[in-house]
Design brief:
Arc Repressor Mutant, subunit A, single chain, Jelly Rolls, three-stranded antiparallel sheet, 10 strands
Length: 260
């Protein structure tokens, strides 16, 4: 474990209250970071923005619960939302992380009213939110949006498949490095709020394992962490510390979304 890291060294139910924390800024007035929205032609983008509101999603906010009707679709700007699989004994593990690269509410896009996953805020930030009914009416009239959402759906499937292999075959330090890189990509900044307890829950491991892994990454000079936040210090080094899964996912995302 230490050898590969040495070589590497030279993100009560709150979903009903999310809107209350939003700034009164009109969505069209804010710069667009969400990659799907940024790729839309002007007319389609305008149609989406007319139906959106800007909201703040905070860490641990419940966006929607398992088997609960999904009332809104989210296009994150600089927040990160996790889709979490919950087991009957109370344990849970992250299935997918979504930030400015995608959208939350894929079940609705596929004409399913709810999901077996829970959506929860991972890293605090803003998102554009559109009501489910407006979304359903809008998509058939927006050819480019429909195509991008289909391609993103395929990306989600492949990412979850890659993550399943990663969770089974790669050591926790590599998985932590991958997770931090993907979170940094999605928020677009070096520092973000994150507790070790929450990271352990997302990775499906015990907190002591995360504490050791984060300590190893910090000792190597790749990150600093404390008081519920993480700062990425050496991005290239963190990429070398990660397993192959990070680059595999990133490359596939570029193929499916950036070139769409």
């Amino acid at each position: 474990m230490a050898f590969w890291l040495a070589m590497a060294a030279p993100s009560i139910q709150k979903s009903a209250h999310v809107a209350d924390k939003s700034a009164p800024t009109h969505p069209a007035a804010a710069p667009i970071r969400n990659r799907i929205l940024a790729l839309l032609p002007g007319k389609e983008l305008e149609a989406v923005l007319e139906r959106c509101e800007m909201v703040t999603v905070e860490s641990k906010d419940v966006v929607f619960r398992r088997n609960e009707e999904i009332r809104h679709i989210y296009f994150p700007e600089d927040c990160v939302i996790s889709l979490v699989t919950e087991l009957q004994d109370g344990d849970s593990v992250e299935a997918m992380t979504i930030g400015a690269d995608g959208f939350v509410g894929i079940a609705v896009f596929h004409r399913v009213p709810s999901s077996r996953l829970k959506a929860i805020g991972q890293i605090t930030g803003e998102a554009r939110r559109i009501g489910t009914d407006d979304f359903r009416r809008l998509v058939p009239d927006c050819e480019n949006l429909d195509r991008l959402l289909h391609r993103y759906s395929q990306f989600v499937f492949e990412t979850v498949s890659q993550s399943a292999a990663c969770n089974r075959l790669h050591v926790i330090e590599q998985r932590c490095a991958r997770w931090l890189l993907m979170s940094q990509d999605r928020v677009g900044r070096d520092q973000f709020d994150l507790t070790q307890e929450f990271l352990a829950e997302m990775l499906g491991v015990r907190r002591p394992g995360v504490t050791v892994a984060m300590g190893v990454l910090q000792k190597a000079g790749l990150i600093t962490h404390g008081r519920g936040n993480i700062t990425v210090i050496d991005r290239p080094g963190l990429e070398r510390a990660s397993c192959e899964c990070y680059q595999t996912i990133r490359s596939r995302q570029a193929e499916l979304i950036s070139s769409a």
